Structure formats: C-alpha cells, structure tokens
C-alpha cells in the first residue's frame, strides 16, 4: 500500500525515533509499504518518520543511482544490487574525507542543496530477521544511509546547509508546509487547511 509522505514542517520529522522490536505489530507489512511508497515516489531511501512513524526504521534501494552515466563500472555494480532494511540503526563511526553531493528529500520536494558528509561509515543495525549486524559502507551508499539515519534522529538535510542558503529556500519551505507544491506522489502537509 502506498502511504502519504509527510511534508516538511510536520513535528514527526523532528522526533528522535524509538527502537522497535521483532514483535512490533504489522512490521513486515509496514516495511513492504515503505518500499512500495519509496518506489512510487522514485526515491532511493525512505525513513519511518517520513510516513508518520517516529521509530528507528528506514529502507534503502540505490538501484536507480546506478543509471548515472558518470559512474565507474564498479560503482554501478555496487549501487545496482544494494537494497537493505535498517532497523534500530546506529552509526558508530564516520571517517574519511568530507565530500559534497547535491541532496534532495521526498519530504522536501523541489529543494536540492549541496550537503557535506564523511565518505565512510560503520553502522550497527538489524535487518528484518532482527539479527544484529555491523557493516562498513562508503560512497553514495554511505551518503544515502546517512541521510535516512538523520531522519530517525529528527534531522533534515536542510539543517546541514548554511544560514544564507536556508534563507534563500525559506519561501519554498513555507510553500511545502502549506501544501502549495506539486509532485507526482501522495503527500500529507502539516500546514494545509482541512488536514
């Protein structure tokens, strides 16, 4: 089932997610719905707060990134096969050089900005089987995970840009809050009347 994506300004996007357990009701269905919602919106990642749940869950599938013609063959192969569910994730280490990439967010449509992040991360998390894993990720995969991880920490990519850039996008953010934006996927807006 395709869920509405929560737009910028909704308090759920600012909450630190609570840990979930294997007996969380309807967890498998929720995860399936999140993947379906992400694919419908042409995203590469989606966190539970973006569909109204303040829990530590996000899904990632970087396959669509693999179609970028500027990538090396090894990068294409890595991105094409990467699909993962992250439950109760914790980034335990960030390392390497910071690098800039132009990011966007399904909850903040029509806004893209350059964001600086570390190139390599170590993450502890559970997949759907609730077996704890520790893995190292780098490059674009690490960036997508960091972006989605921020969501379960109540952080948005717009928090990581300069105050000047924030002022420049203020009108766009206000329009998103008021539902005065158009996108081809279903959204729920915090400030829209008749919500």
Automatic annotation (TrEMBL):
Gene Ontology annotations of biological process type: translation
Classification via InterPro entries: Peptide_deformylase, Peptide_deformylase_sf
UniProt keyword RNA-binding, yes or no: no
Cofactor descriptive note: Binds 1 Fe(2+) ion.
UniProt superkingdom: Bacteria
Top-level EC class: hydrolase
Record: active site: 148
Catalytic activity: N-terminal N-formyl-L-methionyl-[peptide] + H2O = N-terminal L-methionyl-[peptide] + formate
Pfam family, one: Pep_deformylase
EC number in record: 3.5.1.88
GO molecular-function terms, A-Z: metal ion binding; peptide deformylase activity
Keyword presence, Protein biosynthesis: yes
Keywords carried by this UniProt record: Hydrolase, Iron, Metal-binding, Protein biosynthesis
Binding site for Fe cation: 105, 147, 151
Cofactor needs: Fe(2+)
Entry function: Removes the formyl group from the N-terminal Met of newly synthesized proteins. Requires at least a dipeptide for an efficient rate of reaction. N-terminal L-methionine is a prerequisite for activity but the enzyme has broad specificity at other positions.
Similarity-based family: Belongs to the polypeptide deformylase family.
Entry-linked HAMAP family: Pep_deformylase
Name this polypeptide is given: Peptide deformylase
Gene: def
